[in-house]
Amino acid sequence: MQLDNRKLVLGVTGSIAAYKACELLRLFVKGGADVYVAETEAACRLVAPATFEALSGHKVSTEIFNEASDIGHIELSAHADLIVIAPASAQTIAKLAAGMADNMLTATVLAAPCRTVIAPAMNSRMYLNPATQANLETLRKRGFIIISPEEGELACGTQGVGRMRPVEDIYNIVCALLNPREGIAFAGFGQYLPSPEAPLSLAQTRLLPKAQGAGLKVVITAGPTEEPIDPVRVITNKSSGKMGYALAEAARAAGADVTLISGPTHLPCPQGVKRINVRSAADMLNAVKDQVTDAQVVIGCAAVSDYRLAYVYDKKITKDETGDSLTLTLIKNEDIISYVGHLEKRPFTVGFAAETDHAEEHAKEKLTRKNLDLIVLNDVSRQDIGFNSDDNAVSVFDRDGKVADLDKAPKSVIASRLVDLIFEAVRKGA
Fold first, then answer.
1. pTM over 0.70
2. Residue 130: HSE in the Cβ half-sphere, 13 Å Cα cutoff
3. How distant, in Å, are the alpha carbons of 55, 96, 417 from that of 172?
4. 119 in helix, strand or coil?
5. DSSP secondary structure of 337-390
6. Would you call 259 helix, strand, or coil by DSSP?
7. Does 114 qualify as catalytic in the annotation?
8. What beta strand segments (E) does 216-347 contain?
9. 81-119: b or e for each residue (b if 16 or more CB lie within 10 Å)?
10. Which one of the listed residues 22, 44, 156, 301 is annotated catalytic?
11. Residues 124-165: pLDDT tens digits?
12. Which is nearest to 152 in space by CA: 143, 164, 161, 141?
């Protein structure tokens, strides 16, 4: 089950949506989690603690001090993998933003060494009030994960934004946060995976897979490049950029500072990733040169044009001018990942090899010739993976031989596993 061996703290506040927390708790328990509930005084008036105790199998925490020697808020958070506050009222959000610890829930969050997920639920005017929005932004900057509410019919009978997201969505997002290595995190929920914020000792304690890249600047090239022939024609290739973008999202989710240098694609930039748009191989090379000086890792995933035109026409070429044939003279572009691999002070350098025949032989030769630390082999002769596909299957080589075979899977899953391999190798060599 997705939440086996995970300890969660479910915070319930005085929102009319408090009853939905019962169903969320049921999903957590069914998923294998050990769940402890902390209720505010207002929440207890809406759903009695006995209900949550029956569903969780644990006593519900409502008061900071039940006995003089009790420090329950410390104990409750000490071994938690995640705190989930659903629903989160405007009052509790304001208290958390102010760093208050005046009830069991707020004290538990303040003492927690793990991340906190907040699912607001309130009247739309309260939610859209500048004070509430400012409080949510403050919490985002501190590393809290905000699951924005939906629009719909509210308890007061009006329509507007403020309905808590469906409990199934909240459950899936929690599973994504706690299972990033399995690619669950990228099944539409990547936006909820910001990198850990300082202080790292607080942000990373429980979600270690996410923190593996913390402190690393990663530069990734992605997509095709275009070499102009004339103002309306280019030489390009079939690359969609999906693999490079998945790598950027996975590296960001792992805590890295990610710069994505992208050729022309229609893909949205992953949240939290800096994107630099380029067109030609020369443009991409210049962008890499600008970014590589302070990078610890460079991943060359782009399908860069090997050649460009020796002469680019400044006007559209017409058939009347060329007749039945047209001869174009091509000259070789500088190899970008080889440039990085041969820098005197180079980062950890990863290349990609898209091959159709003698694949392993060609990949190993490129690894040596380009002076790379790792090379990822794509067999692009297969029709079910590679260019424009949502799936991929790769083999990874270092200078000692094959490191891993990653069988066919969604590119998001392949990217997550590649990032694990790369960051593990970087840490070992540090």
1. no
2. 0
3. 19, 24, 20
4. strand
5. HHHHHT-TT--EEEEEEEESSSHHHHHHHHHHHTT-SEEEEEETT-SSSSTT-S
6. strand
7. no
8. 217-222, 227-230, 233-235, 257-262, 274-277, 297-300, 307-309, 330-332
9. bbbbbbbbbbbbbbbbbeeebebbbbbbbeebebbbbbb
10. 156
11. 999 999 999 999 999 988 889 999 998 887 766 677 888 999
12. 161
Q: How far apart are CA 255 and CA 246, in angstroms?
A: 14
- Residue 333's identity, in one-letter code, is N
Count how many residues are written for the chain: 430
pLDDT in tens, 249-303: 988 878 889 999 999 999 999 888 999 999 999 999 999 999 999 999 999 999 9
Q: How far is residue 21's CA from residue 24's CA, in Å, rounded to a whole number?
A: 5
Chain-centroid distance of CA 71 in Å reads 35
Within its chain, how far is the Cα of 335 from the centroid? 29
- Using alpha carbons, select from 60, 57, 62, 46 the residue that is nearest to residue 105: 62
Determine phi and psi for 204, rounding to 5 degrees: -110, -10
372 neighbors 351 (Cβ within 8 angstroms): yes
**Partners of residue 404 on adjacent β-strands:** 396
Contact predicate 196/255, CB 8 Å: yes
Residue 178's SS3 state is: helix
Q: How far is CA 96 from the centre of its chain?
A: 25
Q: Tell which residue, 40, 68, 36, has the closest CA to residue 53.
A: 36
Specify the residue for token string 């905000």.
146
